[in-house]
Model the fold of this input.
Amino acid sequence: MSEVTEVQVRQEVREWLKQNWNPDLSLIEWRTKLADSGWGMPHWPKEWCGRGLPAALTPAVEEEFAAIGAVGVARAGIRLLAAATLLEHGTEFQKQKFLRRILTGEDNWCQLFSEPGSGSDLAGITTRADFDGDRWVVNGQKVWTTSAHHADYGTLLARTNWDVPKHEGMSYFILDLRQPGVEVRQLKQMNGHASFNQVFFTDAKVQPEYLVSEVDKGWPVAVTTLAHERRLADGLRAPSRKGDAKGRIYEEERVETATAMEPYKWYPQRAGRVDLVLDRARETGAIKDMNVRQDIAKLLTMSRAAEWTARRARASQRQGRPQGPEGSLGKLAASNVARAAARVHTMITGAEALLTGPDSPRDGVIAEILVSVPAVSIAGGTDEIQRNIIAERVLDLPKEPRFDTGPFRNVRRN
Ligand SMILES: Cc1cc2nc3c(=O)[nH]c(=O)nc-3n(C[C@H](O)[C@H](O)[C@H](O)COP(=O)(O)OP(=O)(O)OC[C@H]3O[C@@H](n4cnc5c(N)ncnc54)[C@H](O)[C@@H]3O)c2cc1C
Done:
């Protein structure tokens, strides 16, 4: 079969949009059409809401959508991490039941991985799942669970075997959060938002069909989710359309943004808002200070280099190559850029950078940057963990000494 070209794809999607795009449809009606046609996720397989196109052609499709202001499939939060994981490891039943509803936005998802004693050491989780002959029964606690308060389902990593080394005794499940055995408690952050939760399980139930991995073989599946998370670290953004577009679909999308996207509204600030730096330096007069100018130049150089690394990673991903070191390098670069940006914002704004409220610099956005930036170095794997990955898997340096190789039951834990 001859390979499809970008020109052909653009023509085809333009024609399809001409026939089908209607801003007066409901959001779900429209996204159902997208899932049925495959144009919402063109690089997904044809049998699973995609068109089987090379991932390199997805940007062309997205550009055609953007050109006429057409809304895409739901992308908020970790739903696409869940979807990518199910596409690779899920059963037919799971793909059938969940993929379409992820794209239409009917179901919200969260990631039930981190625990009070297990963040960096994710394989040390102690939330347990025991099979009672009928269903899995889950007990334990997760923490830092973004969006659990909006979520219908979570991807859950739980211990199913205590007598084997820690990486070999976990299973990967889909957990229905809307059940009596699950209690979600919101946590307040230092930037005033409440995006995270503690999630407690007391005899929560998981039906056998919701086991994604084989029993005890959940770790490689979790690694798939984490690899996608690093790739998407700079991609979880709000829709960029203007807020005043008319039509039922836009109104419903705005409601979705205010609810399902709400936990992410500080994410631009956590990335450091490099885009504001030059304007702020000009409006405060700090641009005349040669030290500030030097630091702005360094920041913009670093930021541009990080962007190119991210683009290189995306390009190689689109060509179907396995993930290289760019994932961890890009994540680390994003932390460095965010930290440097916070420092430059402080140099420019001075002590007023601490103020919030209506009279504060940029209505409190500068202060929000300062208290949001630390999250970049933690979420999705800390800077130190990225450095370990680069050292061990890219540079082939000796591995960290390990004291946790025996049966997990005997491993000392904090
Ligand atoms: C914005 C945000 C969103 C998040 N969303 C989710 C979510 O939706 N679901 C979820 O499950 N989790 C989520 N997390 C949790 C996140 O994955 C963990 O916070 C992260 O993995 C770090 O774990 P920890 O907080 O337990 O810190 P720890 O692992 O306790 O680390 C504490 C410190 O020790 C250092 N350290 C630990 N181990 C090593 C080592 N081997 N070598 C060198 N230094 C080390 C760390 O780098 C860090 O500085 C989120 C976190 C943030 C900030």
